[in-house]
């Protein structure tokens, strides 16, 4: 239970950054360079947001210090992120649940799924330093 609050806050920080960057990507960048390139350009910015959010969360919630607790924070945040992606996909983009997760570009979609793994592991990764 000690991981719940930091997991929620970590999710909110990264989801908020992703919502802002995603809006900019869709409205400004996609028309210029296309979906794949726009998504790939956004990835490093989201990775930075993830690192900063994980560092801030771990500093703000230093206890418990165990690896399993830090991975739990990431796991909780990942579950919320997937639920958030589903809600945005269905609510704002009119997609089906399957389309939200399966209709992705092969290149940028793979990068997206790798970034989700990094997102889940980042509280543990930054706490190892």
């Amino acid at each position: 239970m000690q991981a719940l609050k930091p997991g929620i806050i970590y999710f909110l920080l990264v989801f908020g950054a992703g919502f802002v960057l995603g809006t900019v990507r869709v409205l400004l960048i996609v028309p210029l360079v296309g979906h794949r390139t726009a998504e790939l350009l956004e990835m490093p910015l989201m990775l930075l947001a993830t690192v900063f959010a994980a560092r801030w969360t771990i500093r703000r919630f230093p206890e418990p210090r165990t690896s399993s607790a830090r991975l739990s924070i990431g796991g909780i945040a990942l579950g919320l992120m997937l639920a958030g992606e589903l809600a945005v996909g269905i609510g704002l983009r009119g997609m089906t649940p399957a389309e939200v997760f399966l209709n992705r570009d092969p290149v940028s979609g793979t990068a997206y799924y790798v970034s989700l793994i990094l997102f889940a592991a980042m509280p543990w990764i930054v706490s190892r330093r």
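The mean pLDDT is 94. The radius of gyration is 15 Å.
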